[in-house]
Structures are given as C-alpha cells and as structure tokens.
C-alpha cells in the first residue's frame, strides 16, 4: 500500500544512535512532511533512502529493496531528491544543471556522443525540450543561461527543485526546500510543490521547518525527535499532539501556524 | 524575487563555462582559414614552433578534460606521453609497423595505463591523487629506460618519417597541416563529449561526488572513463611527438614536462578547452621568449648556460602570478576584453 516503506531503520555513527527503529511509509500522490528539531535525523533518513548511509532495517520502493544498493542505482530506480544547499554545479547554467539530471534517460553511446552523430543530436534536443518545459513551469527561463553560482541562493534552491523534477522521478525527496528563501519565494515554492504533486501523482517526502507551509499543503506529517518517531498523522492532529509540541517547537509557534493554516494559502 | 543576503557564503565564484560551443562560428572559421594560410608565409623555424604548439595542444586538451572538467589532478601526463612515444618507437623498431598501426596501438596503450592509474582516484583526491599519478610517470620512464638498455639503443630509438597514403610526412609544411587537422579533430571530439551526457557527468562529479551519485551518475565509472579517454589522447600526442622528433628517448619526458602541462591548463584557464589551446601556445613560447630576451638585451646577464634555468624560473613565476592575479587564466582575460569592447561599442552606438 505504501510506495516507499521504511521498516525499523537503525543507523549508528560510532556510539551515537542517529536513527532508532524508524518506520514510515509514503503512498502515491501523498505529500508526507518530515518534521523535527535540528539533529533529529531527518536528512539521515534521506541519506539512508538514497544509499549514501548504510542503515540496518528494510527500505522498499515499489517492491524493490534499496538496502545495499549504490546511490546511482537507487537514483536510476526513479528516486529523485533535492539537497539542503542545492548542490548545483556552480559554473554551469541552470539549463545545463537540469540536463545533468537527465543522465539516466540518455541512451546514446559514448561514440555517438563523441562524434555528435545525428542520433545523439536528436536525443539531446529531446532532453533539452524536457528541460525547457520544466524551466518554463518554474518561471526560470529568463535565468537559464546564467552560471548558477552567481544566482541568489533562493533561486538556486528552486533550480535544485527543477533538477529533481526533470529526471521524471517516481518519488521525490525534498530536503528543506524552503530554507534560505524569502517569504515570496516560499509561497511560490509551496505552489510548485503542490501543483507538482497533483500533476505527477507521485509520493513526496518533504523535510520542512516552516510549519505554515507544512500545515497548508502536507497531507500527513511524520515527526522525528532524537532519531525516534514520535508522531504520524494529518497536520491538524499531529500539530496538536502535546508530545510533539513539547519535543518540538514550543507552544506559541505551533498555535500560530495552525491559525494561519486555517486561512487558505495565497498562491503566487 | 531575490535575496542575496541568504545566499552569502553559499554562492560559489562565478566561473563561466567555455566549452567552444560554436557560439561565434564566423570568428572560428576566420581563425581556421588564417591558420591554414600561415605555412605559405612562415619560415621553417616558425613552422617548427607551430608544430610543437600543436602537439602540446593535443596533450593540453586531454589534461584539461581530466583536471579542468572532471577535476582529477594528474602529474602523470609526461609519463603518458612517454608511453605513447615508446609504444610507437618500440613497435616501429621491432616490427617496422606503419603509422596506422603504431598510432592506434599508442592510444590503446595509453588508455590501458590510464585505467590502471585511474583506479587510485576512486579512493584518493587532490594532492594524494597527484602523488599516486606521479608513480605512473616513474614506472613508464623506468620501463622505457630498461627497453633502451636491453635493446642496446641506449641513446634512444630512431624513427623514419611516417608514410600516409604513400606520402612521406617529412617537411615542416606537411607536418603543420597534419598536426593542425589533428588538433582541430581532438578539440571537436572533446567539445562534443563535454556537451553530452558524459561531459556533464564529469562536471557533476567534479562539483560534488555525493550529489552526482544521487543524480544517478555512476561516479566511479565516469572517473575511470575520464582517465581512459584522456590518457589515450595524451599517449596519442606522445606518439606524434616521437614521429615529429624522429626520435624517442626517456630524456625527453621529464617530470618538468608534466608540470608544463599543468601550467598550460592553469595559465590557459581551468575548465575551458579554448583555454587549453591558449595555454599550450603560451607555455610553448616561453622558452623562445627567454632566448629572444637574451639576444636582444645583452646586459641582462643571461647566457646559453642559464637559459634553461631561466625559463624554469619564469614558469614558476608565471604560474604564481596567474594563480594569484588571474585564476581564470588567459581565457578569463580574453572574455573580459571582449566584454569590455562589446559594451563600449554598444555605448557608442547609443550616442
């Protein structure tokens, strides 16, 4: 029933327990927000799914176990992700950065690429069309020719989101996509996440600190604290849970977020 | 919709990607026509310098792809050129094989050596990787020396001019055109690769291996591929060097040669194929400029015996100057100049 399911994931760094029997799952078409204080192990979960860390336990994606697979093989299964710090290639422009993510879709051989044979050229044009569509969708076309290293961090993050989208992922993992963004950029991002979810119908796992955004667009929330799961359910329930409130933000912030969430989010 | 404040410390320095994407086609065509006409007016001495530049350019393009694009530092470039030269020399001496056999054999030999010496790159980075590639240099030079000694050719291997389609490649003009075509072909091939999946994978693993892997790039495979391809090309240029000099000897392939190639890509401008060409021109010309200085400025205190150490010192100085004052290299200077002129002409146009 879950597209992606983690069961009893444990991760240790030396004597430090980073993840302690974490289990969670995401359904297709569902936006699951992963929240928790800094150091709770949210990004570690992403790194376990991506194959960067080697946890014990089970991780299954559409019937395939991801445990022990190389990160590139996991990406090839259709698991796309964004990074906290965007991690773009600074001297390439946005268009080239997005083209990198088409890697697994390029079929032409080394010789075809080297001699730029017509088959390779045609294929390249097709991939470029996909990239341009995503750039259009995210209103980035006017910046697409600039080296991304010189662009504001917020824009880099949106390009990073586009890079994950352009790979035609079967699931999307987003690591604090809104961190470092202005309020205006956040609203735009929330709109893009929500519309991508509705358009693609894929499961999405979303690490976020902005409770306003979470309560507005997340379908469900999973709460981590010190590597343990302490809550899972719809935003309205989870954010009212006393244990979550105690462990996490502090009463006032949550209350504010729930209040604002009652009003529909203005979409830029 | 911009917030530069949040970006502070996270914005990498802007380095323009210059991969010869044919943006200015007419300028390139003009340059090619001009270069094709050079032999009609140049003296044999100048044609010789041009041919040396061409051979260096092929090697520099290879190193630029490996280091400037894929980010793998190598001090084994001279060793790879030696491998190509010796493969050609030994094949010719032992079997009398023609250029259609020796050149492909040199490419394959270089590619195999590149694969072996690329393996440490899966574990090592930066200075540590550079040290491991240094081993490549000494292994090849040792094997070459052993062959020279065992075969009684202690002074080196002599090669006759190569024969292409019944035509003996001997005089300066013929060499100029042949090497010119090979440089153009190498540049074109490298540029195609950089503008494809392979080149983008190299850029990605250069920028961040973990992120590249998470995007689906098989980092280990693409690193080795970079070593294999560029080592094949470097070995190819070594074979050409052997034919051009009609002579192969370990003495020609010093560690200083590897450093000269690194100087070419730094001075030319990291990450740019055109920069590799500019660097090859610049570095090849430095010793000639030093010599010229010695002849024209008699009281400089330079004589023949100090010429070589003077050019070594000049290299050191130039490398430092470029690293400190112009990290984007000659290509950076060139781009700024073009940008300045185009903005000036725009202003004038408005007035």
From TrEMBL, chain A:
InterPro entries: AAA+_ATPase, ABC_AA/LPS_Transport, ABC_transporter-like_ATP-bd, BCA_ABC_TP_C, P-loop_NTPase. Residues 4-251 form the ABC transporter domain. CDD domains: ABC_Mj1267_LivG_branched (cd03219). PROSITE patterns: ABC_TRANSPORTER_2. One of its GO terms (molecular function) is ATP binding. SMART domains: AAA. Keywords: ATP-binding, Nucleotide-binding, Transport. One of its GO terms (cellular component) is plasma membrane. The lineage of its organism: Bacteria, Pseudomonadati, Pseudomonadota, Alphaproteobacteria, Rhodobacterales. It holds the Pfam family ABC_tran. It comes from the Bacteria. This is Amino acid/amide ABC transporter ATP-binding protein 1, HAAT family (TC 3.A.1.4.-).
From TrEMBL, chain B:
Its main location: membrane. The chain crosses the membrane at residues 27-47, 54-77, 97-119, 126-145, 174-194, 224-244, 250-269, 276-294, 314-334. It is a multi-pass membrane protein. GO terms for cellular component: plasma membrane. Keywords: Cell membrane, Membrane, Transmembrane, Transmembrane helix. One of its GO terms (molecular function) is branched-chain amino acid transmembrane transporter activity. InterPro entries: ABC_transp_permease (IPR001851), LivM-like (IPR043428). It is found in: Cell membrane. This is Amino acid/amide ABC transporter membrane protein 2, HAAT family (TC 3.A.1.4.-).
